[in-house]
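Researcher: Next entry in the queue.
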Amino acid sequence: MFDCESTGSLVTKDQVSPPSDEDEVPEAARGLSEHEQSKVREAQRPRAPVVYEIIRNEGESELRRPFASLWWSGVAAGISIGFSFITPAALAASLPQSDWKPLIAKLGYPVGFIIVILGRQQLFTENVLTAVLPIISRRKVSWLLSMFRLWGIVLGANVAGCLVFGAAVALLPVITNDVDSELAKLVDNLMTNTPWQMFAKGIGAGWIIAALVWIIASTEGMDFFVIGLLVYLIALFNFTHIVAGSTEVLYGWFTGLVTLNQAAFKFFLPTLAGNVFGGTVLFSVLSYGQVREEISANR
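Model: Structure for this entry, 299 residues:
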């Protein structure tokens, strides 16, 4: 209970108005110049609703892009992501046998993702978040159909690019024998997972990529380091990623290490479901939940 005004009336805590932007400037801030106060405002991180709107606007822009733009950008991403397959193998082939060898070799895994994301190429798991937020906000069937259109084009294009890269590495003399043996080890390690493990580990990868999109939208000038750190976690925990893993599986198919049935039903479908679940049902819905009331109030 708090005393109020000279009338002696009382109000409860629930009746006390929260501070507003028009309240008196704190004493510490009064000692700053206009220029210094502007610097303080510039240094503040954007609020969650601001980040949400940035990603939503980008998602709406992606949903409106023509087929050809999405397709060729997606094919380029599928080819680029292949470097997340061969770079760790090349590092492993160059390192001496030791307990820390896998930790160092996995530092090469983010390379393909860095090329794709900084190059603004279309990656399916990245679009899981950016395309979903407009749907949650708009809640219209037409936007939902646009999302499925985007997902279908980009995923198909990514796999086509992975097919090109996997065929080139398997059939052309582009790598040495020692790197080739390390590639085979990566494929074998991936295919030791059961379909259930593919799905569960796919959830982790889907969450990390969605978190990556969210963090990049709220930071400036740190994209390279954020991508490198978060994508390294996918390799460190042996999470499964539908696009990067497709390069491994397709290479394994070309070299006889993986059958088409294993590629489709043991890897592709469970991993796809896990990535979508981790990036959509979990991260996207929770991200919207934390800003829903603030966005509704502003509107």
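Model: The first strand starts at residue 2 and ends at 3.
Researcher: Noted, moving on.
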